[in-house]
Amino acid sequence: MGKYRRVKRVRISDRKLNLIVRSFLADITSMSCAKIVCLNRRTTDRYYNYFRLLLLEDQEQERIKFLSDEKTEVDESYFGPTRVRGKRGRGASKKIAVVGLLERSKRVFTKPIGRCTREELLPVILKHVKRGTDVFTDGWKSYDALAVYGFNHKKVLHSEDEFSTGDGNHINGIESFWSFAKRRLAKFNGIKKRYFSSNLKETEWRFNNRGKITKRLRQLIRDDQRGGDR
User: Which among 200, 225, 197 is positioned nearest to 50, based on CA atoms?
Assistant: First the structure.
């Protein structure tokens, strides 16, 4: 992917570059972008890959630094075929399990896991959430040990039709992210497993930078171009 760094704007005007940036941020495919901007598909592919590399590196830095000390919602979800035979929910087959941690300030962190067991969920929470933090989950039994590890564990019992207790006890934020992520990834009509993590990371970046994605991407481009001039 490194070959896409510091893309040279040969024969591309500022107007066309702006259209490529706007198309990428709007999640318009490279093929459609090429038609809109009247460029060769290879050119828009090159810029799309360049933009994607920048934001994936940016999000990776955020993932490394993610350590929440504020109210944090934790939940898991499954990604994959919408129609598969076998178990559903937490026992779903042929799907990828993902644990998500969302600060109430709306920053989210996700990590694919093998199974939604205590042995796989707790290490992620212990690494990325400070002890003593208010942690909100549903009633899944794998979270029962959180209080033992020093977290202020608050449950939302979906099994009893409880979705919010009216005092801020809910996991609506992380569920909103799952909805956003699944809508976005569904537009690609299926993602190969080896590409899932990078697509999920890009989705994180888009969610965490919503309302400022244009400004943030342009800043990343400027910083990278300046680095190439040194």
Answer: 225
